[in-house]
Amino acid sequence: MQDVVLFEELSAGDKVIGVATLNSEKSLNALSLAMAEKLLPQLKKWADDDKVACVWLQGSGEKAFCAGGDIVAMYKAMQAEPGKLVEEVENFFTQEYKLDYLIQTYPKPFICWGDGIVMGGGMGLMNGASHRIVTERSLLAMPEVTIGLYPDVGATYFLNRMPEGCGLFLGITGATINANDALYLNLADHFVGHESKDVILTRLKETEWGNTAALNKQKVTDLLSAVASDDTTALPAPQVEPHQSLISELTAGNDIGDIAERIVNDETDDKWLSRARKNLANGCPFTSHLVWNQLQQGSDLSLADCFRLELTLSCNCAVRGDFAEGIRALLIDKDKNPQWQHRSVADVPAEEVDAFFLPPWGDRTHPLADLDK
Asked: Model's pTM, two decimal places?
């Protein structure tokens, strides 16, 4: 059995750089429970170790940083006990969100090499990093509408902080974005060509590190800005910003059924918009309602409360939602013909949506109750 995460410490003068590599190239480094359980203690150890100047997180291989979560394992657990909140599902989401929150609040420079595919669970890992690097090969998305889930991993927080309408649009369409879009949407901080990776790592090892997090974060920012300015790789053409006014127009209003219909019926001649419309038209109708409500309810929540809300939603998706059917159609039987519970976004009853926001823990304490303690 190979190690699902590889850890290494690179010498950097009298300090070291902690390097963590997601090591499941075959699954495009999909985040598994085993990965989360290895990352959490190691990242905490590095946070407390004065020798560690910064942390670098990457994926193995050339195709992906992290293409999402290991949802096939969850599907098998859900199938064994349908209609119940199974331990494997609750445990996966709990550990994943603890990991995302740790990265979001990490006390040292945390650099994410977001080369290749960055989707779903990968977005959660990358978005929390203090320094998020994208390349000409980066493809980012929150594509949960295709599997009957919704954008989790902190998306309640980061989708709410995008330009007007973009968070809702990306959440309900699962549209794929590139490095240029990621910079515009505040999902990335630096752009370089993928071949600059070794240059960055070499310069990090040559850096004269300070003794405060603020100073070292500024050193990383300056280093990455310098490498980026020397890099001649062309940014991909923007897809989101040219359509900003249209996205604002399409997502305006207070009825998600009307908004979804407006987007699906839009006839703007553009490949990117066309794919987004198709995703929404074929995707899970329930997802649109969950996204709409999570963004409304999450607009004033703290980061920790956003993750607590998402754990409630994710567990309810597994018990009463279309999550299992979405996984079946896309990854198990691969017929790409999910039988959603509702025919359209407009057909979803409000009381069914409300039930997803009720904690399913019974008399138990919320599993993330002490997240920010």
From this structure: 0.97
Neighbour-count burial for 331-354, b at 16+ CB within 10 Å, e otherwise? eeeeeeebebbeeebeebeeeebe
What residues are labeled active site? 69, 121, 144, 152
**Spatial distance between the Cα atoms of 106 and 86, rounded to a whole number of angstroms:** 30
Sign of CA dihedral 108, 179, 144, 4: negative
| First-to-last C-alpha distance (Å) of the chain | 36
- What are the E-state strand segments in the chain? 5-12, 15-22, 52-59, 64-66, 110-114, 117-119, 131-134, 139-141, 190-191
Which residue pairs from 348-354 have beta carbons closer than 8 angstroms and sit at least 24 positions apart in sequence?
A: 348/257, 348/285, 348/286, 348/288, 348/289, 352/286, 353/286, 353/289, 353/290, 353/293
Tell me the per-residue pLDDT of 129-147, one tens digit each, with 9 for 90 and over: 999 999 999 999 999 999 9
Single-letter amino acid code for the residue at 27: S
Residue 166's nearest CA partner among 194, 140, 197, 128 is 140
Spatial CA neighbour of 316 closest among 164, 158, 161, 152: 152
Give the C-alpha separation, 42 to 94, whole Å. Answer: 17
Residues written for the chain: 373
What totals of helices (H) and strands (E) does the chain contain, helices first?
16, 9
CA dist 171 and 201 (Å) reads 34
CB 172 within 8 A of CB 184: no
Integer angstrom CA distances of residue 245 from 163, 170, 292, 355: 10, 15, 19, 34
H/E stretch holding 202: helix 197-206
Q: For 319-334, what is each residue's pLDDT tens digit?
A: 999 999 999 999 999 9
Give the containing element (helix H, strand E) for 200: helix 197-206
Q: What is the pLDDT of residues 153-170, one digit of tens each?
A: 999 999 999 999 999 999
Radius of gyration of the chain (CA): 20
Cβ–Cβ under 8 Å, residues 131 and 190 = yes
| Torsion angle of the four alpha carbons 193, 197, 198, 200, in this order, in degrees rounded to the nearest 10 | 100
**Cα separation of 138 and 120, whole Å?**
14
